[in-house]
Write a structure and sequence with these properties.
5-stranded antiparallel beta sheet, 4 domains
Length: 517
């Protein structure tokens, strides 16, 4: 019944704001035009279409607001008036009552507002779909930002997620193509990330991890968490002062190098994805600012860490090899990688898949970002994947979404940015680090404690294996074989360790010699 009521509310909202009229007006058939005039009767649809769409998404709740936030970064796919209105969803969602926010802070932290803060600004400085932010000052004089979760969010989100789960199930049952897309797994992944975003303590932990990962790059600032004031409903962090990245004129007037900013954004993204496997996955302009402070001038400021993406070593290596092959235009290798990973059926012809991928990607190389739409490229790749029965990988959905965010930001900052040329050296360097001597030496150091534990027992195990007489029973033979296998593994580990150490030592010697030359 809850799903039915929510479905009826969605339909009513669509009709109330005239979104059905917007859809039908895009068709030129005379029957549909008459239908457009019919559905518009008796409704006040004089407000601009972009404003109506924004208000409808705000009425439908946080999931729909997030959908609008993603759309707002794709100005190449949207009319300017619609994109401008959707951009307001990034940090200007109507706030909830400040007294309720104060009540949540006091209840969650267990003290009165005057005990917690020397000052607290009741007017929020930013309001988003999940929470709103107030500025405050701690009693020691430290300026902070206080993020407060919107009340009643869990029940609203779970209603929408229940509908999405239900529709995903229908899609899988009704369509073989739908099953290939794994909609239930994708919705389950989205479900997990949304519930994570409702836990501000988890967000604080995400921010701390990203801060550690990015510490030595000097490209991005991430606020420090005030852990004594962080709970699941309230998050208190270092106050960051910057200019929103979409305020381009203000940044130019301040002297920020916009082209460098665009290149730095690509570097930050690929570092988080391929080096760390832990990336900010909600990079719309409302969460990205630029520092104008003299000590950190021109650096990015990242905010809102409720949604982060993670990749396994297998995922990172597969993606890096794919990207590198793309940049080298080695479409055969891309096709082979799809086969090796099991993403396409085993009987797929490599040459046919190679030709299909080439036809999608080749037209876009050597073009600036203003002439490329990753959205259109992904759409054509999707059509190709359906032809070859490629299975969609749910764990990469957040990465695809973030890649579209990065493209939208890059296009706004520097339309002449060559995305491929900027990213290629980074990926090639990363691949060398994964398979070169440095990687070998790192693995040897990681395995050293295990070798240290095994080596003292090796003589005893060898003596037991050599001195034990052959057993007549089947059990005795099995025990002997098992002992021999253990001994063989130890010998193999010792041999690999010695060879690895020798190679690492030889590599360091060669580096020193070449440096001396």
């Amino acid at each position: 019944m809850r799903r039915l009521l929510r479905g009826l509310f969605i339909v009513w909202t669509v009709l109330r704001f005239g979104l059905d009229e917007l859809l039908l007006s895009s068709f030129e058939h005379p029957v549909l035009r008459r239908l457009t005039r019919l559905v518009s009767l008796g409704r006040n649809l004089r407000a601009p279409r972009g404003e109506r769409l924004r208000l409808a998404l705000e009425s439908l709740g946080p999931i729909f607001v997030k959908f609008g936030q993603v759309l707002s970064t794709r100005r190449d796919l949207l009319p300017a008036d619609v994109a401008d209105q959707l951009a307001r969803l990034q940090d200007r969602v109507p706030p909830f009552d400040s007294e309720r926010a104060v009540g949540i802070v006091e209840q969650s932290l267990g003290r009165s507002l005057t005990e917690l803060f020397a000052s607290f600004e009741r007017q929020p400085v930013a309001s988003a779909s999940i929470a709103q932010v107030h500025f405050a000052t701690l009693h020691g004089g430290r300026p902070v930002a206080v993020k407060v979760l919107r009340p009643g969010m869990l029940s609203v989100i779970e209603k929408d997620l229940a509908l999405m789960h239900m529709m995903a199930g229908w899609l899988e049952r009704l369509s073989a193509d739908g099953r290939r897309l794994k909609p239930r797994e994708v919705v389950a992944e989205f479900d997990t990330y949304l519930h994570d975003e409702l836990d501000l303590l988890r967000e604080a932990s995400n921010a701390a991890q990203l801060r550690r990962n990015m510490q030595g790059m000097n490209l991005v600032l991430i606020p420090e968490m005030v852990w004594d004031f962080c709970t699941t409903d309230v998050l208190v962090m270092e106050r960051m002062n910057g200019v929103p990245i979409n305020q381009m004129q203000r940044l130019r007037e301040a002297g920020v190098d916009i082209k460098k900013l665009a290149r730095d954004g690509v570097t930050i993204f690929f570092t988080q994805v391929f080096r760390d496997g832990f990336f900010h996955a909600d990079m719309h302009p409302g969460n990205i600012q630029v520092s104008l402070d003299p000590s950190t001038f021109g650096r990015y400021i990242s905010l809102d860490f409720g949604i982060v993406g993670t990749l396994t070593e297998v995922d990172k290596e597969y993606l890096a090899q794919n990207f590198t092959a793309f940049f080298r235009r080695d479409y055969k290798r891309v096709a082979e990688l799809h086969l090796e990973s099991g993403w396409v059926p085993a009987g797929t012809r490599v040459d046919a898949l190679e030709a299909a991928i080439r036809s999608v990607c080749e037209p876009y190389f050597d073009r600036p970002l203003k002439e490329i739409s990753l959205g259109l490229v992904l759409m054509r790749l999707f059509q190709t994947s359906r032809r070859f029965q490629v299975e969609i990988q749910p764990q990469l959905v957040l990465l695809q979404k973030t890649l579209l965010n990065i493209e939208g930001l890059g296009r706004d900052l520097d339309p002449d940015l060559d995305l491929w040329t900027t990213a290629k050296p980074f990926l090639e360097k990363w691949m060398v680090e994964q398979v070169g001597p440095a990687r070998l030496w790192k693995q040897l150091k990681a395995e050293a404690p295990m070798y240290a534990k095994l080596l003292p027992t090796l003589p005893r195990l060898l003596h037991q294996a050599l001195s034990r007489p052959p057993a007549g029973s089947l059990q005795g033979v099995q025990e002997l074989l098992a002992e021999q296998r253990r001994t063989n593994r130890l010998l193999q580990a010792l041999l690999y360790g010695a060879v690895g150490f020798f190679i690492g030592l030889l590599t360091m010697v060669l580096v020193q010699v070449s440096g001396g030359v």
